[in-house]
Amino acid sequence: MPDFTSSARHPRLPLRQRGQALVFGIAVLLGAAAATFYVFNTGQLTAEKTKLVNTADAVAYSAGVMHARALNFDAYTNRALIANEATIAQMVSISSWLQYSKGHVQGVPPLYCYSQYSVPVGLATLTYVPLCYALSYPAGYTVVNYADTAFNGAGGGVGGGAIVVAAAETAKAELKLMQATMFAGFLFARTALVQEVADANYRNDGSVSVTPLPLKDDWTSFQGGGTFISRHTGNQRQRMRDLIVNVVNQDAFVRNRSWSSSSPWPCNPVVPAGTADRSGGTVLNGYNSWEARDQAHFEIRKKRFRGLSLRCVQTGYYSLGNGHRKTTSTPGSAWYYSGVPDFYELSNAALNYTPTGSSRPDPRLQFAIRVTRAMNQTRTSAGTSAVKPGGRLHMFDGAAAGGVLAAVATSEVYFDHEQINGTTELGSLFNPYWQVHLVGNSTAVVAAATALQGVATP
């Protein structure tokens, strides 16, 4: 029987070759551990970065929404200011018209309108005849007199018209204060908002920081100049004045209260011709006063010789009332008017903005923000994770440049209002059509963010 225990069949290895497999195994284990930490940190960093990018988008978009709401707020309040101006113009117009109407009622009797043989009938001023008859009745005088007393006051007192104007002035002052307050506190509110949005995205998951100084802020520095919007005062109110006049003049009663009614035949030497002439309207004098005038008269003319020529001359004249109302600039007095209001509108740089080669020459407000998260706050092996590398595995802990993760996002506010006729309206603070969306980061924004991260720009 062969001796299987013999050392001849199982020769011993030399001592210098023993334990080599253990070294290889340790190397494999070290590589596996490094790969595990690498995969773990890569996954965690990817999740952290995705969340940080989403947070930056939320912060930038929230700031953009705030910008759009501020611009639309100014647009709504500007329209309210214009509505108050229209109210004042209406009150001034009605006051003057009632004064005229009262005088017209008093001036009708000499025309004998209560008779079928009245002057207007005899001269065939047919358009004026129905009005003349209506004003001849005592009830007409009573109604007009009562309305004038209630609206304009009796014996120099304050009537309903002056009270409405005072209420409109109070509303104007409050609207102007609201605009000024919004503008003054906007930056403080925006700073608090962006941090609040960032914190909400990381509630119960550590802390996150919003870089105090935005990478781009057109609200405070549009096109490298002044603010995106500004307060317009003094002669800068022309834009507001033009719009007020345009809106007020949509009402024909305010714009022009004139008419005339004449005999169907021309002035001649045989039959006299008559004309009932009524003129009136309301205007805004400069920036400081509304003024309304109304007057009417009935004139009879006939051709007569003057010297050697035959001329059309006046042979009869009847005053049919006069009315006049003008606001005053004296505070506290009846019919006080503070003038065309100061208001907030796009700055001159924004109003005159015309990008080269653009099919839409409208200004846009961009805001770029940087959001950071310290590495010790992340769920990686170098942060809050319970998995910690040791020894040489520290080289695989996923350290970030500057010790923080950072994300950058840009929002853009733009004006979008297509009118019924297909034309596109340019941006202003008179229509509330400002909207917001996210846009890509510009080269300048990326370069600024890179510099803040402490990484050299390639």
TrEMBL record:
Pfam families documented for this protein: Tad
| Alphabetized UniProt keyword annotations | Membrane, Transmembrane, Transmembrane helix
Q: Which InterPro entries match?
A: Tad_N
The Putative Flp pilus-assembly TadG-like N-terminal domain sits at: 19-64
* Transmembrane helix found in the keyword field: yes
- What domain of life is recorded for the organism? Bacteria
Instruction: List the transmembrane segments.
Output: 21-40
Task: Please state what the protein is called.
Answer: Putative Flp pilus-assembly TadG-like N-terminal domain-containing protein
Tell me what organism the protein belongs to: Telluria antibiotica
